[in-house]
C-alpha cells in the first residue's frame, strides 16, 4: 500500500512556548513551575535519570534491531529556525533545541512538501520491547549545553556529556503520536551521547555546515545532501541501558521506553561551538536540558554479552516476559 510521506523538516526552537500561554523554560526556577501547568511532570517515572552499571541489572538482552537506518532519507530537507517550540507540529510535544521531524501533520509553523513512496520510515524492534511490536521513527532532536561540562539530559557513570540526541519512535499499533501519548507503551526514545574530540566528525557536516544559515529566528535553508541516520549513531550499538520513563519536556507523559547507548559519538570543539551560536531571538540557544529526576523503584537494565551468560546458555533460557520494570 502506498504511503504518504512528508519531506523532512528541520528547525530550531527556543526555550519557551508562547502558543499555549505557558512560558516553559530550562532555568532551575522555570523547571520548578512545569508541574503547575502539567501535573505529570511530578510523576514517579520521570526522565532523565542517572545511569550507572552499579545500579543496573546486567542481562544478555536481545539486540535492538534498527531497520532503514542505513537508507538515505528523502529530500528535500528543510532547515528552519521558527523561533518557537513547534508545539502544534509535534502533536503538542514541546521539544526545544535542534529538531528533525518526520511528522505526518502539516503545520503552518513549517513548510513541508509531499512525496509519495512505498518505502517505510525507519523503525526498530527487539531489546525489551514487546514481541511482535515495532516502533517507527517520528523525529529526532538535540539537547546541548553552553559549556563543555553540561548539555546531555541523562548522566552516564557520573558524566554529563556536552550534547545528547533523542530519536523518538511511535508504537505502530497506535495511528499517530497524539494517540500514542495516551498509552504506557506508546513511545520508545533512543538516547545518544556526544563526546568532544579535536578533529571534526565528518558525518555531522551535512547538518552542522548549514547551522550558520539559520542562526536567527524565522530563518530557513534547504539541505542539498541526503542524510543517513546510521552515520549519526555510535559504532557500538550492542551495549545499551533501558528503563521506563517519560518525555523530558512538558507534558512529561510517562509513556517512554528509554534505550540509551553506552558508547558515544564524537564531535569536535569547533562543531560543538556552532550549536552555541544559534539564537532563540533573545539570547543564545543552549542549556536546553532537564534536571535529573529520581529513579525511585524503577529498574535499569543493561545489555552485556558477558562470558558468564554465554557459558551457561542463559541467553536462550532468559524469559523476557518475567522481567519487571520496577523493584517490588
Automatic annotation (TrEMBL):
Alpha-carbonic anhydrase domain: residues covered: 22-304
Cofactor(s) the protein needs: Zn(2+)
Any matching Pfam family: Carb_anhydrase
Entries under Gene3D superfamilies matching the protein: Alpha carbonic anhydrase
Alphabetized PROSITE patterns for the sequence: ALPHA_CA_1, ALPHA_CA_2
Assigned EC number: 4.2.1.1
GO MF annotation list: carbonate dehydratase activity; zinc ion binding
Highest taxon of source: Eukaryota
Signal peptide region: 1-21
Annotated keywords: Lyase, Metal-binding, Signal, Zinc
Gene Ontology CC entries for this record: cytoplasm
Coiled-coil region list: none
Catalytic activity: hydrogencarbonate + H(+) = CO2 + H2O
Lyase recorded as keyword: yes
Role according to the record: Reversible hydration of carbon dioxide.
Similarity comment text for this entry: Belongs to the alpha-carbonic anhydrase family.
Listed name of the protein: Carbonic anhydrase
Taxonomy of the source species: Eukaryota, Metazoa, Ecdysozoa, Arthropoda, Hexapoda
Amino acid at each position: 500500500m502506498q504511503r504518504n510521506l512528508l519531506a523532512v523538516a528541520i528547525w530550531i526552537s527556543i526555550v519557551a512556548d508562547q502558543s499555549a500561554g505557558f512560558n516553559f523554560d530550562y532555568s532551575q526556577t522555570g523547571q520548578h513551575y512545569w508541574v503547575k501547568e502539567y501535573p505529570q511532570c511530578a510523576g514517579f517515572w520521570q526522565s532523565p535519570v542517572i545511569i550507572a552499571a552499579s545500579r543496573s541489572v546486567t542481562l544478555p538482552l536481545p539486540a535492538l534491531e534498527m531497520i532503514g537506518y542505513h537508507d538515505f532519507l528523502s529530500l528535500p530537507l528543510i532547515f528552519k529556525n521558527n523561533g518557537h517550540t513547534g508545539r502544534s507540529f509535534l502533536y503538542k510535544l514541546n521539544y526545544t533545541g535542534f529538531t528533525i521531524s518526520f511528522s505526518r501533520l502539516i503545520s503552518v509553523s513549517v513548510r513541508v512538501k509531499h512525496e509519495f513512496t512505498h518505502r517505510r520510515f525507519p523503525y526498530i524492534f527487539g531489546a525489551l520491547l514487546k514481541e511482535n511490536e515495532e516502533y517507527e521513527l517520528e523525529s529526532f532532536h538535540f539537547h546541548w549545553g553552553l559549556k563543555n561540562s553540561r548539555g546531555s539530559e541523562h548522566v552516564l557513570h557520573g558524566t554529563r556529556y556536552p550534547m545528547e540526541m533523542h530519536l523518538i519512535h511511535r508504537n505502530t499499533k497506535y495511528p499517530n503520536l497524539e494517540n500514542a501519548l495516551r498509552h504506557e507503551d506508546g513511545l520508545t526514545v533512543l538516547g545518544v551521547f556526544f563526546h568532544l574530540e579535536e578533529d571534526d566528525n565528518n558525518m555531522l557536516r551535512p547538518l552542522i555546515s548549514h547551522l550558520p544559515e539559520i542562526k536567527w529566528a524565522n530563518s530557513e535553508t534547504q539541505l542539498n545532501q541526503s542524510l543517513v541516520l546510521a552515520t549519526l549513531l555510535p559504532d557500538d550499538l550492542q551495549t545499551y541501558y533501558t528503563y521506563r520513563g517519560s518525555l523530558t519536556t512538558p507534558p512529561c507523559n510517562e509513556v517512554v521506553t528509554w534505550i540509551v547507548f553506552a558508547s558515544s559519538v564524537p564531535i569536535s570543539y569547533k562543531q560543538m561551538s556552532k550549536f552555541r551560536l544559534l539564537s532563540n531571538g533573545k539570547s543564545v540557544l543552549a542549556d536546553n536540558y532537564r534536571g535529573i529526576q529520581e529513579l525511585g523503584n524503577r529498574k535499569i537494565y543493561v545489555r552485556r554479552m558477558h562470558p558468564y551468560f554465554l557459558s551457561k546458555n542463559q541467553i536462550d533460557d532468559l524469559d523476557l516476559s518475567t522481567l519487571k520494570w520496577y523493584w517490588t
